[in-house]
Design brief:
mainly beta; Metal Binding Protein, Guanine Nucleotide Exchange Factor, Chain A; two-stranded antiparallel sheet
């Protein structure tokens, strides 16, 4: 189950478990999470967006450009302000095939086998084999 803090946004993910989990140490995730890193659960876009009709009135969206020239859609709860989902749009405006769900909004999210990415700006020690930038498939 995916929920914001006030539970105005609450819905089931399209899969029982995410495709992968990233612990991102980039400066944007540090700012967005107000912490040393952000946790993201990766899911396919298909079946996750658009949001169910019942929660659409509670969802706001903010966009920003990424370093790679893409646009990031940041979906948040209009009531509590919690960011719930991020979806990337390629420079031509087409959607990337996956999106990220903010880790704190996921029930029972396991960090076992999570990848540490963008570790060049890490504020804490990271495991060996981490990615100094994005993983290869980004």
């Amino acid at each position: 189950m995916i929920r914001c803090q006030c539970e105005a946004i609450s819905f089931r993910a399209v899969l029982p478990k995410p495709l992968s989990v990233d612990v991102c140490h980039c400066l944007e995730c540090q700012r967005q999470s107000s912490s040393a890193f952000g946790v993201s659960a990766i899911f396919p876009v298909e079946g996750m967006l658009p949001f169910p009709e019942s929660i659409r009135p509670h969802v706001g969206m903010w966009t920003r450009k990424t370093d790679s020239g893409c646009t990031l859609e940041c979906y948040f709860c209009k009531t509590c302000g919690v960011r719930v989902i991020h979806r990337g749009l390629l420079p031509d405006g087409t959607s990337q095939s996956t999106l990220t769900v903010t880790g704190g909004c996921m029930e029972n999210l396991s960090l076992e086998n999570a990848r540490h990415i963008y570790t060049r700006s890490a504020r804490i020690p990271v495991p060996e084999g981490s990615w100094p930038g994005p993983p290869d498939e980004y």
